[in-house]
Amino acid sequence: MLAYLLDEAATLDLGKQIAQCCPQTQFTIHLEGELGAGKTTLTRGLLRALGHKGNVKSPTYTLVEHYSLATRPVFHFDLYRLIDPEELDYLGLDDYLSNKSLCIIEWASQGGDYLPKPDLIITLSYHKQSRHVKIEAVSAQAKIVYEQLETIVVDSG
Ligand SMILES: Nc1ncnc2c1ncn2[C@@H]1O[C@H](COP(=O)(O)OP(=O)(O)OP(=O)(O)O)[C@@H](O)[C@H]1O
Ligand SMILES: [Mg+2]
Q1: What's the domain count of the chain?
Q2: Probe residue for ligand 1, chosen from 2, 4, 5, 11 as the CB with the greatest number of ligand atoms within 8 Å
Q3: pLDDT digits over 17-74, tens only?
Q4: Would you state the pLDDT for residue 155?
Q5: Structural domain span for residue 107
Q6: Among 29, 31, 40, 64, which is best to mutate for testing ligand 1, by the most ligand atoms less than 8 A from CB?
Q7: Ligand with the closest atom to the CA of 76
């Protein structure tokens, strides 16, 4: 699915919709797109919808930020500065994949084979002053999310 995101509010809203559709099982989202395309904005919308109140900053230097929310644990990765995918070994990724966690990974392409396989791949791109977003469902459970999203995105014009 390709959709149009007019402004920051639209990107935040897509994040919120994804949060609402995600299954309660472990779920991984890869976020792709150039610098400034809106990956962190989408993550912010998603985290707010799950009850997070504070700031959401890209964990560019720490690689991962953990949000211990009432609904489920969320891990927000930003791998922009990752030099060698092997560095991910030291993060103890297995711990992140247990327990209904939601993993959102910016610059997932930098992580190579060390990362969990995506359920959903979201690619943001510049379109004039706005953005385009491509959403791809990889796993069977993501296809269910995708179908709900498609309805919402189309309905909202
Ligand atoms: N649909 C949109 N239309 C126009 N501007 C947007 C849209 N979505 C987000 N933005 C703006 O784009 C800017 C960059 O967003 P953001 O920080 O989320 O990008 P990013 O992809 O995470 O960048 P980086 O690769 O540096 O981490 C912000 O100022 C944000 O408000
Ligand atoms: Mg970012």
Answers
A1: 1
A2: 11
A3: 999 999 999 999 999 999 999 999 999 999 999 999 999 988 988 899 999 999 899 9
A4: 54
A5: 2-155
A6: 40
A7: 2
Radius of gyration of the chain (CA): 15
Q: pTM here?
A: 0.94
Q: Which residues, chain by chain, have CB under 5 Å from ion ligand 2?
A: 39-40, 58
Please give the backbone phi and psi of residue 41, each rounded to the nearest 5 degrees, phi first.
-60, -45
pLDDT tens, 77-133?
999 999 888 888 888 777 777 778 999 999 998 988 888 899 999 999 999 999 999
Q: In the predicted model, is pLDDT for residue 157 greater than 60?
A: no
User: Which amino acid is it at 154?
Assistant: V
Q: Are 124 and 136 in contact (CB under 8 A)?
A: no
CATH number of the domain that residue 61 is part of: 3.40.50.300
CA 20 to chain centre: 13
Amino acid at 37: A
Tokens describing residue 109 = 């392409």
Question: For residue 62, what pLDDT is reported?
Answer: 87
Query: Which two structure tokens, joined as six digits, stand for 58?
Result: 């890209």
118 DSSP assignment: P
- Of the candidates 67, 15, 66, 3, the one whose C-alpha atom is nearest the C-alpha of residue 39 is 15
